[in-house]
Description:
The structure is a single chain. Helix 1 (16-27) packs across helix 2 (81-91). The strands form 2 sheets. Strands 1-2-3-4-5 form a 5-stranded antiparallel β-sheet, with helices on one face. Strands 6-7 form a two-stranded antiparallel ribbon. The protein has 2 domains: 16-93, no CATH class; 95-132, no CATH class. Strand 6 and strand 7 form a beta hairpin. The protein has 2 helices and 7 strands. The chain is an alpha+beta fold.
Amino acid sequence: xxxxxxxxxxxxxxxxxxxxxxxxxxxxxxxxxxxxxxxxxxxxxxxxxxxxxxxxxxxxxxxxxxxxxxxxxxxxxxxxxxxxxxxxxxxxxxxxxxxxxxxxxxxxxxxxxxxxxxxxxxxxxxxxxxxx
Length: 132
């Protein structure tokens, strides 16, 4: 069927919930807890929480063919669930827990996931202190 502009009509927008369910499945449940929120009068979203650092929680939305961060930045197209899941893992990875940071360096400033257990010096940190 043609649209008013004379061109073909765009493909219908997939249900946001379906893409979010696929993303939750791709993330798995070992490292992250993913909960689909479908409350009345609210846009469906996926609440993803790092199980070892529960302060690392983010809401992921789906719309206009993309997954979105809560701050309205695109993550990846909904058809690329694997790449979207990898970006979510990177953002919600606990630093100081052997997490690789840009360039392959490891952050050792925080012992484990306890933000109150910061080492006295960041000089030995491969990210903040210039290497080991």
